[in-house]
Amino acid sequence: MTADILLHPGTGQGGGQDHWSPGDQVLWRYRGNATDRVHICRPVTVVRDDAELLAVWMAPGTECVRPVLADGTPIHQEPLETRYLKPRTTSVDRWWGSGVLKLARPGEPWSVWLFWERGWVFKNWYVNLEEPLLRWPGGVDSEDHFLDIHVGPDRAWHWRDEDEFEQAQAAGLMPAATAERVREAGRRAVGVIRDWGHPFDEGWQHWRPNPAWPVPALPVDWDRPAR
Ligand SMILES: [Mg+2]
């Protein structure tokens, strides 16, 4: 059970930071914007965790928590104009389709997700702008910043969800100062893409999960406080 995962004691190098081992199961979570309640929870398997990078795998069929409108309507079926104004709750669903590899460099205000088509045909990278991950014994927490960047296999990139980013500000979910920080982070991420820096240059599109890894379960206390 995720709740029983023990952190490995630091080695004394790298500032005594604790790291998970490949195969450990942790929770990758997002708090709701302008709330401190968790509204996205994805049980994942640790691929790599060190001072440079946290890499995790979300396997097909993983039971995940996602936000829905209070009447059960999926968020993306609600028109953008009212999407951020209606009360929400959470719903548990399985992640269908191919798995997702998530890469986060410590302290960076984005994570990079890799998507494949069936048969491991690499589809795209996806830069999710977000608060730098906060580590806690059961996983990592963040807050999504709405704006994203799509990067194709040919390295061509474009902004994604600029409309959601604008609408979230209009709905009072993101103060202007935060929005400016997010835009600045986005510009830095674009610089990394243009320079083809980490993690894009590391060949992760050729990575494959260990077939012996079980699909992690969603714990009943998935929304427990990080601290
Ligand atoms: Mg996003």
Secondary-structure element series: EEEEHEEEEEEEHH
Approximate strand percentage: 35-45%
* CATH homologous superfamily assignment: FomD-like
Structural class by helix and strand composition? alpha+beta
Strand order of the largest sheet: 1-2-3-6-7-8-10
Number of strands: 11
Residue-averaged pLDDT = 92
By DSSP (H or I, 4+ residues per run), the number of helices equals 3
> Roughly how many Å apart are the termini?
18 Å
Q: Runs with pLDDT <50, length 5+?
A: 1-16
**CATH topology term:** FomD barrel-like fold
Radius of gyration: 17 Å
The largest sheet, given as strand count, sense and whether it forms a barrel, is: 7 strands, mixed, barrel
Q: Percent of residues in helical segments?
A: 10-25%
Number of domains: 1
Bound molecules: magnesium ion
Task: Summarize the entry for a quick read.
With 227 residues, the chain is α+β, with helices and mostly antiparallel strands. The protein is 15% helix and 36% strand.
Describe the overall structure.
The chain has 227 residues and is an alpha+beta fold. It has one domain: FomD-like (FomD barrel-like fold). Helices cover 15% and strands 36% of the residues. The strands form two sheets. Strands 1-2-3-6-7-8-10 form a seven-stranded mixed beta barrel. The protein has a two-stranded antiparallel sheet with strand order 4-5. A hairpin with a 2-residue loop joins strand 9 (134-136) and strand 10. The longest helix has 20 residues, at 176-195. The chain is globular and about 40 Å long. Mean pLDDT is 92; it is low at 1-16. Bound molecules: magnesium ion. Magnesium ion binds at residues 128, 144, 146, 148.
